[in-house]
Structure formats: structure tokens, C-alpha cells
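Sequence in, structure out. Go.
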Amino acid sequence: MKIKNLGIVLRPIKNSKFQTMLGHLTTWLMRRKVNIYFLSSEEARLKKILSSSQFSKLNFVDFKALSSLDAILTLGGDGTLIGLCRNLKKSKTPIIGVNWGKLGFITEFSAQEMFDSLENILKGKYQTTQRRLFRVSIKKDEKTIFQSKFVNDVVISKSMIARMFQLNVDCGEDMNFAIAGDGLILSSPMGSTAYSLAAGGPIVHPAVPGIIVTPICPHGLTHRPMVIPQESLIKVSLQSKEEEIAITVDGQLSRPLKFNETLYVEKDTRRSLCFIVNPDKSYFHTLKDKLMLNRRSI
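Output:
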């Protein structure tokens, strides 16, 4: 399908190179008769960056309307893409991730190849892949008091002094255990190369239907990272009333976890993510490029 209505989500960056590129991109898209949509929160910012003739032809919408467009382009790092994915209201909208950040592991396209890639994508010459979203919730007395989607991971850690604490973890099928250490990471396969990898977790291909459970500096030699079925319902609770514990969702949202609350992580059965893939780059190419996997030193 040709793309005529394109949403653009920006990273919060103010350098001149990014602003110049945005002006070129806007003109480039308008010449191809593409209707451009930005989030309403960007209106004041774009008015300062773009010319009056460019700005007058833009459209501004909320996240709900953004989900109804032909495609959405993210200009930023992985964080920009993750924030969009967590807030989208529909799952069928194709997402084009262009890396204007540092690492850019899950963004498919580089800044250098953006215009050439967009030329084909706008004509409908593209392929997509589906990725699963996951859901985290916190309940107290069977009542849900917090809920969010996540793309990469949920991290349970100390919110104040770095000190060991204990968790009860229930993954179903008699897989119940207590763990003491600096915390716990519950990661999607797509997020396996983020915090979980840094904490000693495995690299898991994003197509693998699983959830990665990675202890952070566990105080016990038997507590190792595990990959469990994505259909599992994971329950986590605290063993002590005196600990000040917080959960962090995708490195972007945070809230306390208290003794009388239970955290739940499970697959989101209603929504998935639709990414436009880079035909010139495979997952293993990204591993080699970003993590230098299998590179031999001379």
C-alpha cells in the first residue's frame, strides 16, 4: 500500500544538524504529496524550526489519531521508538524506525539511508514483521492499581541505597522460587539485548516466543537467567516490609512496589507491533554491527 498520510514522532533533541534535516525532510515529503502529521505536543517546537510555508502545511494530532495513519516514522534512538510503541492505540500501523541516537539497536534504518529507504517505502515497496507487546500490572487486594505495556523490559530494583533484597517469584508450573540480590529484569525477546544482556542474560532472537527472567547480581550460584514460555504469568512480590523498591518500565516509567502489592507480567494478547524492516539488514547483521558479535581481533 502506498503511503500518503505519514505520522512523524521526534526525539527531544535541539542540535542544528537534526533541525536542518527535519526541514529537508519536510520539503522532500511535501514534494511527493505526502500529508505530514506530528503530535500536538510538538507544535510550538516545530513553529520555531520550520519556515512559515512549511509549518502551515503540517497537521497535528494526538496518539489516537496517529494510530490511524498509513505509517509512522520515528526520528530518534531506541527510546523514541519504544515510547511510541507503548502508547500506540492500534497495532496494525507500520512503524519506520530511523536511528538518530547513539546505539539504535531496534531502529531498522540509519540516518544516512533514510531518504533512499523512504523513497521505496512511500511507493508501497516494503515488508513488515510483527513483534509481541507485553503487559505489566500491579495489584493490591485483587485490585489493579497500575498497568502499562512494555516493549523491552520491566526492572525491579532498589529505589534508594544499593543493598540486597529478597523477592518471591512465581512463573507457574511449579516454578516458584525466592531470590536475593540487587533486583530482577523481566525482558521481552526484543529487549534481551538491553539491560538484561548487560546483567548477564542471553541474547534471544525477537521471533522466539518467550520471556527472559534475569536476576541482577544474585546472591546465590543457582540463580541463573531463564527463558520461559511467553504464555506464562509471572508474579513477583517482596519478602520484607522495610525495603524501598521501585519498578522501571522500558527505562521510561517508574513507580514504587510495596510489600502488600503483587507485580504481574504477561503477554499482551490483544496487541502486537508492526515494523517495516530493512531489506539490507538482518538481525544477526545488527548483532555484529552494534555488539561486535563474532568479530575477531587481530
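Check: Residues 105 and 290 are 7 Å apart (CA to CA). The chain has two domains: 5-127+277-291, 133-270.
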